[in-house]
Amino acid sequence: MNHWLVKSEPFKYSWEKFNQEGRTFWDGVRNYQARNNLRDMKEGDLVMWYHSNEGKEIVGIARVVKESYQDPTTDDKNWVVVDLVPVESLKRAVTLEEIKADERLKDIGLVRQGRLSVMPVKREEFDRILEMSAQ
């Protein structure tokens, strides 16, 4: 199983709205590296949900339930989506500031490639963020 992080601006699509709906496809990705990451997602992979711009914090965990397929919001065959379902809200949101301050997370993609909207997360980084959430 792999681990990922996706970013969403809460005013466009929040963790709360995602939980109300219970399932979504992750669309609107128009960056080739992020698209390639979507293509690499497998059913069962866990995904951290990051509120960007407002909040700047990881707020929950989702699961990939359908692997990549053509983005239904465009006819351009270059773009794909995956289907996600919510798994759980973090006990406490973990902020970008906290992540940057943690030596064990110094190489996480969220810090190194801050503008990328879909990125892999190492298992130990995933586990560390869950540990921080429980504090």
From TrEMBL:
Q: Name one Pfam family in it.
A: EVE
Name the coiled-coil region(s).
none
Please state every residue range assigned to the domain named EVE: 2-132
Q: Which InterPro entries match?
A: 5hmC_binding, EVE_domain, PUA-like_sf, THYN1-like_EVE
Identify the domain of life. Bacteria
Recorded protein name is EVE domain-containing protein
What's the source species for this entry? Mucilaginibacter glaciei
